[in-house]
Amino acid sequence: MDLSNLTSLPEESEEEQPHEPPRDKPMVSAFASRPDRPPTQSSSQKYSPLDWLSYFDREEDVCISGSNDVFHVYMAGTEGPVVFCLHGGGYSGLSFALSASIIKEKVRIVAMDMRGHGKSSTENDLDLSIETMCNDVFAVLKEIYGDSPPAIVLVGHSMGGSVAVHVAAKKELRTLAGLVVVDVVEGTALASLVHMQKILSSRMQHFRSIEKAIEWSVRGGNLRNIDSARVSVPTTLMYDDSKQCYVYRARLEETEQYWRGWYEGLSEKFLSCPVPKLLLLAGTDRLDKALTIGQMQGKFQMVVVRHTGHAIQEDVPDEFAMLVLNFISRNRIGPHGVEIPGLRRPLQSQT
């Protein structure tokens, strides 16, 4: 969940005439009267959806044995370790689409639609407890890879970052080889929870078209990369027949009872994970005391990614992909490591 933006934009824009307002209220749309002008690319074209097949290779529905739960995953790449991606609250697996087109050239990548998100369907979409989401990850990995999983690098953004840390801290995934956490820190996250309902309610709730939702996500500052938004935003929506508009797929405002459990104790769990760790942050002011000490002791690698918002993997997908690949190469993850030209390995990894 993006905690940094409380603004919303008017849903109306230039390519559509606004609905007639109630007679007792004045017209407030900035586009109520438009001057004639030469035709240009319309907003609906600029913000039209992009096909995920340009980035991932395939999609699959993973049916969980003994339940009616079905998790949707996007996959790409043919060899090497698996970068297993967990998105943030309100996002979907396609949050990693643009990065996947680069990552798949060196390793495999799988991005999962979490419970209550994207195209996944479960018996209880509102059970976003940390324990349930961890069990979902274990179940999906078991269904895909059986008892012989390849080397796994868990990558988690925001809520998905907390899930990745909890999964890693359980030490039950024997082929876990690396952990990448994207823009989530315990102290900052816990302090933000008191504002979360206000943030969620301040978002625009209804969209007459998918293009409108993509436009709002970019112009409102939630996402800064138009192409990424054009791929990822459509699967965060569903059509409400009763309201005849698009609404958010994830009902995050109804899951408040689980939020604190995502983040409490997160820093210590992260530091305790016995694998190489990378923390990617969008700002330098987000480290709490435990992480500050751990970073000074060299217990994990930290990179501050400049000029980006909360969704680093969407805003700067090329940079994000190279940070992940460099992390894999530096730590020789996989049967032979991943050779990346121009990257010198640390001496200790050559022994």
Can you characterise this structure?
- This protein is an alpha/beta fold.
- It has 13 helices and ten strands.
- The longest helix has 16 residues, at 130-145.
- The chain starts with 42 loop residues before the first helix and ends in a 21-residue tail after the last helix.
- Mean pLDDT is 86; it is low at 2-40 and 342-351.
Q: What can be said about this structure in brief?
A:
Helices cover 32% and strands 15% of the residues. The relative contact order is 0.16.
Keywords summarizing the entry:
single chain; 351 residues; alpha/beta; Rossmann fold; eight-stranded mixed β-sheet; two-stranded antiparallel ribbon; 13 helices; 32% helix; 15% strand; disordered N terminus; disordered C terminus
Q: How does the SSE layout of this entry go?
A:
Blueprint: H1 43-46, E1 58-63, E2 70-76, E3 82-86, H2 97-103, E4 108-112, H3 130-145, E5 152-157, H4 159-170, E6 176-182, H5 186-192, H6 196-202, H7 210-219, H8 226-232, E7 237-240, E8 245-248, H9 256-263, H10 266-272, E9 277-281, H11 289-296, E10 301-304, H12 312-315, H13 317-330
Helix pairs in contact: 2-13, 3-4, 4-10
Average pLDDT number: 86
> What number of domains?
1
Low confidence ranges? 2-40, 342-351
Strand order of the largest sheet: 1-2-4-3-5-6-9-10
CATH class division: Alpha Beta
How would you classify the helix and strand content by structural class?
alpha/beta
Helix content: 25-40%
Strand composition percent: 15-25%
How many helices? The count is 13
Q: What's the SSE pattern?
A: HEEEHEHEHEHHHHEEHHEHEHH
| Terminus-to-terminus distance | 42 Å
Could you tell me the CATH topology label. Rossmann fold
Largest sheet: 8 strands, mixed
Taking Cα atoms only, what radius of gyration do you get, to the nearest Å? 21 Å
Question: What shape does the CA trace take?
Answer: globular
What's the name of the CATH homologous superfamily?
Alpha/Beta hydrolase fold, catalytic domain
Tell me which CATH architecture applies here.
3-Layer(aba) Sandwich
SS elements, strand count: 10
